[in-house]
Known about the structure:
Blueprint: E1 2-5, H1 6-11, H2 13-22, E2 25-29, E3 32-37, H3 40-58, H4 60-63, H5 75-80
Parallel strand pairs: 1-2
Antiparallel strand pairs: 2-3
Amino acid sequence: MATISATDAKNKIGDLWAMAEQEPVTIERNGVPKYQLISTDHYVAVTVEEYDRLKSVKRAPRLGFAKEELAGLDVDALLAVDISAEFEGYI
């Protein structure tokens, strides 16, 4: 993963976009990581992966996973959201 300062990011935005096409880029402010810049394709892949993971978590109690692993997740609400239109052509 590449890292760049906020000043360099501002001054070299075209280079930054090209870097983000290859891998996620960490943007630092005063030496502290503050932001991640990723390509749309990477974002979609990560989002679809997380959606699939949540679908498997919904089935977890029937598969014998520990109840504690589901703490704090409103899986039904997350799975009720229709994201298919947003990711048409990707899934």
